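The record is given unchanged here:
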Amino acid sequence: MPEHDRSAELVAALEEELIHHRARAVGDAGHRIDLAMALNNLGAVYLNADRAQDAVGATEEAVAAYRELAAADPRHRAELATVLQNLGLAYVQAGRVELFDAFGEVVTTWRDLAADDPTHLPRLANALVTLATWHSRVGRHEEAATALAEAVAVFRRAVPEHPALLPDLAVTLTNLGNRYLQLERPADSVGHAREAVALYRGLVVASPAYLPDLAGALNTLANGLRDSGEPAAAIALAEEAVALRRELGGDDPDSVRGLAMVLNNLGAYYAEVDRHADALAPTEEAAGLLRRLLAEGQDVQALLDAVLSNLERRREDVGKREPRRRKRFWPF
């Protein structure tokens, strides 16, 4: 049976089940939990079927039902937080700004629960990361940084009891470092990126799977040092990031794009210390990699334009004897 037909059958079955639960819940509060669960389940199936507006309607009603349940019995607050998360995802798919209210309430609910029971700290941290992600996607970098800073603090508290969260702490530190760069707070970026690098160096000893994350953290730290007026210190980190990307290899778009990013930045750092001949080759290679991705149909035109702009400056620099005035470059 085609996937579409199976999805339609599941929707029909859950809609019929919902009618049954509505009838049983009338005048019988004991069945409210079944109705709430049915609404949430139907909302999730609508979401998977790309029926965003239907998902919003069902999940909003589920949230209202869980609010009543939580008001009567606080033990339902965790379920309310989970359904609010689903509502946020439905708002995302429907393109509605209420997603920030939903994800914000998820954070508030888990924060209250964690205050009474620290076992909820991981859920609070993840909720903060989700909220930060959506703030960042619409350019709300200050709000994103605030949420990530709290997430870092929560992960720090949770890691001693949940060591498996150490990679989550590391990636959140890297992301916070990047948000601080966007806010032109390089000193704050450097501190958090440096800690992320240290954590990833430890993690790669146990698993090479973290090497791409280490390369990313090195790139963030290098950008922070460059923006702090330390291009020479940034060079060593960028060279290590390039070496890691080459070691990892891979022809998939993410791997090629990652190598292009660190090559572009390395070229810029060389130019900062007037090593213009050294700066040209990595920038040319970055442009070549992005041209290849573009020819393969990847959406990298904006990145390629930025690298080509940098490449034009690198070529202008070659052969000049006098140090040029420091210019802003396009980092990644």
Remarks:
- The radius of gyration is 25 Å.
